[in-house]
Amino acid sequence: MLSYIIAIDKNEDGNFQDSSDIITPDVVAMRWQLGMAQPYEVSAAPSLAEIVVQNPAGAYSPERSGLRPGCRVRIQSFDGTQTRVHFTGTLWEIAPVPGDQGGRQAVLRLRGVDDELAQQVVSPAALVDVRADEVIAHLIQRCKLRYPVLATGLIPGEAGRSLPGRLLFGAPLALNLAAGKTTFAFTDDLWSNGVNVWQALHQMAQHEDGAVFINRAGEVCFVNRHHRLLRLTPAASFRQDMAAMTYRYGTDIVNQVDIRMTPRRIGAAGSLLWSLTETQKLSAGSVRRLVARYRDPAGEPVGALTVERIVPVARSRPDGSGAALDKFLTLRVISQGASSATLEIQNNAIVPAYLTQLQVYGTPILRGDTLYITESDPRSQTYYGCRRLFLDLPALTAVEDAAGLARSILIRRRSPRGVVPSLTVNPAQQPAALGLTLFDRIRLEEGQTGHAHDHFIIGETHEVDHGGLRHRLTWALQPADDDLFMTLGRDRLSEQCCLAY
Q1: For 218-243, what is each residue's pLDDT tens digit?
Q2: Side-chain half-sphere of 162: how many Cα atoms within 13 Å?
Q3: Which of 104, 109, 100, 31 is nearest to 67 (CA)?
Q4: Fold for domain 265-367?
């Protein structure tokens, strides 16, 4: 019989094994979701979970029990043989039902690490000749993320809670990233005022035509565009034994792809990147920080590979006259991004200094005119009308890369095909279904529609109620495309198949 283990890491030691961590006996119902919501999406919908618990003694009333948001929560199942992790997230909100005569329950709402990434805005460094996975890793490295284990850490300002052991350091987030197939000449210079990290991850997955998502273990995952072409063997088959299935034909046709791209090149070393526009007063002994956002001579935002030198001019009077105080200034570059730098200026003089000029020089990344690449299939347009897809992919700088991506999308979507966007199964009758997760391949056969095709699981939603006696599992699916492409060294040449981009 299927059973569940739900645990809150209340003491934040990372093991979920303490007796006080296990809350399974209190759980009434659960719902959680991971992955994409619709076919052909490149980034996951928010990973969320909701757990309803009995709360007669106030164990889940924070102002009585001390339970607080921020703790890690894990949902597992056990089928008598194997224990599986299904969701790992953070306790976001606790909602006890008031009153001692009612249901005396509480709702625990959880969010995945993607929500935390969506709260982060960073200014990345300039990256040259990098793949999507390298950009993703770089962006996450610049985030200020909560550490999953705090029990052995030294937390400033938390006397009585911090324990001697170690300072918080290292990577708080596990990554599972496949190597991208496209190399981007430049990337981060386009994010001139900083970028929301989850939106940036979405952009990189879109440029690669891959996918980014959070898996059951709470890892950030990235798959490249060849992932679905190389996994050929279905992990399971379903033939007329689905609890529910949705089906559509023809709604996902694309027969024209328009891509907007931004060519760029490296400018001359020693170019002026930024200049102070107004005189600034620096009190004696003061320390100030300025953010220098790079601009070209026309005042438009520009990227930069490096900052090479900073030239200050300081005088003892605000009109620029008086004694020169440049030698009393200490300048430091606190952080350097692709589109801006944070500068720290200290006045070591015993009198105020007036900063009348401050110039930053370096190597710029210059943008060319925007290009539009269009690929279309006239035959498909003749039969089905124009079905257009527009993609804004500024990190692409090579026309061939943009054209190859557009042709790849056309091959997959220029002709109508049967699509099963969602499939529901009953794990009590098909317990092996709980072992299937994001980007596993399955085979579907259904008589009424005549559909017989392989799909990839791109999303999963679980609903457990009646104290765990009923479990409904709904997958979001996307058609497998390997029948449209050929692989050198594996397939025979065919007029019906094309080489993958």
Answers
A1: 999 999 999 888 888 999 999 988 88
A2: 12
A3: 109
A4: Deoxyuridine 5'-Triphosphate Nucleotidohydrolase; Chain A (2.70.40)
